Amino acid sequence: MLELLHRLAVRLRRLKPVAMAFFLVFLAIVAVMVFNLPSREDNLLLVPSIVGMLWSLSAYALLSTFYYIPRVPNASDRLFLRLALRIKRFWYWLLGILFVSTTAASVMVSLRLIKIWYQEYIG
After folding, report:
1. One-letter-per-residue 3-state SS of 29-48
2. Which domain, by its residues, includes 92?
3. What span, in angstroms and rounded, lies between the C-alpha atoms of 82 and 72?
4. What does the alpha-carbon distance between residue 8 and residue 23 come to, in Å, rounded to a whole number?
5. Residues 110, 48: contact at Cβ < 8 Å?
6. End-to-end Cα separation, the chain, in angstroms
7. Crossing angle for the helix pair 16-36 and 46-65, nearest 10 degrees?
8. Tally of structural domains, the chain
């Protein structure tokens, strides 16, 4: 799993500034909507902006966290180097599990938010 996330982050590394730009745009939209306290009809972009913020932040986290992962320790490495590499890789494994679980939660939250938004504003 760790190597898969690393390969994905390496392939998509050029999208890191794009993900941050989208996050900032969506954050600005949400801030304007919240601080202006518009009427219900003017809140049309609030839910899609929250979903966009969630996914752009998730993409940025993937690209930032898994671009570099520690190498697998070799048998010829010294004991403390092997131990340090294993501890670092274990930390990245925990981050990977956290990332996959938050991505699954993001899918569920996104689907629910878009369903509610669609029923309230479109349907």
Report:
1. HHHHHHHHCCCHHHHCCHHH
2. 2-122
3. 8
4. 20
5. no
6. 40
7. 150
8. 1
Nearest to 13 by CA among 52, 67, 68, 70: 67
**What is the CA 30 to chain-centroid distance, rounded?**
18
Sign of the dihedral defined by the CA atoms of residues 62, 65, 67, 69, in that order:
negative
Token pair listed for 111: 């689907």
Scan for tokens 């982050």, then name that residue: 9
Q: Which two tokens stand for residue 3?
A: 């190597």
The residue to which tokens 């930390």 are assigned: 91
Report pLDDT digits (tens) over 61-120.
999 999 999 998 888 889 999 999 999 999 999 999 999 999 999 999 999 999 998 988
Q: Distance between CA 116 and CA 110 in Å, rounded?
A: 10
